[in-house]
Amino acid sequence: MADVLKPRWGQPVTGIISSIAFFLVALLTWFIFSDPRGPVGSFPYPFVLYLAMMILVGLWQHMFLGDWPFQDIGQPWRGIIETVVNLVVVWFVIHIVFYRVLGLGFNFLSQVNLENIAAAGNLVLPGPEGKKMTLEAISAPTARFAERAVVCFVLIGFYSYPFVTILFGKWPIRPSNLTQPQAGFAELGWTTMLTLFLYTILIVPFWGMIWGTSFGTSVGFNTPWWGGIAGTKHVHWVFGWWEWMIIVLFMTPNVWRMKPWTTINLPQPWKGAVSFVINVALGYFIAWLCVKLAYLWMDMGSVTQHLPAGDKGDPTRFLWYHAAEIAGFTLIPFLAWHHYFDDMCIQSDKDSWGAFWFRTLGVGVLMAINYIFFYYINFGYWGLGNGHMHGTVAERFIHGESLIWNFWWIIPLLWNEWFFHKWPFYVHEHH
Asked: Which letter, b or e, does each residue of 313-333 get, where b requires 16 or more Cβ atoms within 10 Å of its Cβ?
């Protein structure tokens, strides 16, 4: 007999109730850990470091290992145990793998190492004064360079880990007779190699500029090669189009129900390779559109006046990062629509092209509503306590950090779907 998950209260009631529950859980935990008005107040760092790594480790647990070895435990205990394991592994990856192991060779990936060097007075800024970088300066929220470098690794990993599963059907690990955990660890090793390859090309040059240009002369690190392409050497250029690549990737198994890649009738790995090229091109094109069309709704003169001094009045860096922020507003709409509203549409066939376009346009509308709610109605200020957003709309755009909230917001949803198997919002029925 097959075991089928059914919405406990039918649709759309189950979707509405679960979405409200996830929003309230996200808001409460945000207040506890991130909101400056709350007890911890760790916005944006190290809060963002932990939330990013939580999602990445959760992906390893669920997508690679298939929830092994807890897959046969009943709910809610399975979900609780996997959440605890997630937090332990997150701490281990950050504080041991990055800070203590990779940190043996790469100080820029170890916040502990950087703070020790600064405390010893060995970090010296360039120039005739030779000013030393203090411990307070290197650990300030505006610095914390190693934490930011690790977050950049997670950014790359949000795509480079799951795209083998989604676009390549887990090739070359599958098809095979490997069981868990061998299959999961094999996929983790393969995709980690790809992640390090892409991280080296797209992220390390930026940190070469930070540690070279800002603190001396870079020889061991290269500096950004994309300045002539993007009009900025900042890593936010990568953030902009890479985030849209992630959105296109995850829209595929969610509201797109694997379209349009189902039209590619090629064996693996050729189907995956073609899909990957299209994914990259589409992600870059959408991000580029966001950069170009932002002038239609933004008062760019006001935005430019409030840019950080390092931008020298040029909004290019800001616009590419803001493209990534726009992408973030699609996360809850397409994830909730697929997982908790069961891909509802006005068409009778959920897999039709009409349903594909209905849900795609719907996600776009919900993205715009989310954007307006956060920036114009100013939820980022009164809801999340972001003190930078008390000013004009132009100032809110620059200091909003909406991407952090949108990723935090999806954690309760993903945890419930991945670890708790939609308990208690869905029930099992035997057929």
From this structure: eebbbbbbbbbbbbbbbbbbb
Query: Could you tell me if 67 and 27 lie in one domain?
Result: no
Residue 4 confidence (pLDDT): 87
Whether pLDDT at 338 is above 80: yes
Count of structural domains, the chain: 2
Tell me: do 333 and 208 sit in the same domain.
no
- 132: phi then psi, degrees, rounded to nearest 5: -85, 140
Question: Are 170 and 180 spatial neighbours (Cβ–Cβ below 8 Å)?
Answer: no
C-alpha 67/C-alpha 261 separation (Å) is 27
**How far, in Å, CA of 314 to CA of 319, rounded?**
10
Angle at 365 (CA atoms; ends 326, 338), nearest 5 degrees:
90
Looking at the structure, do residues 112 and 216 belong to the same domain, yes or no?
yes
Asked if residue 47 and residue 35 are part of one domain, the reply reads no
The pLDDT tens digits for 345-392 are: 999 999 999 999 999 999 999 999 999 999 999 999 999 998 888 889
> pLDDT per residue over 114-154, tens digit each?
999 889 888 777 666 677 778 888 888 888 999 999 999 99
Q: Residue 312 domain-assigned?
A: no
For residue 14, what are the domain limits?
1-41+329-431
Average pLDDT over residues 77-92: 98
The answer, yes or no, to whether the previous bond of 39 is cis (omega within 30 of 0) is no
Q: Tokens representing 122?
A: 């060995």
Q: How far apart are CA 340 and CA 17, in angstroms?
A: 9
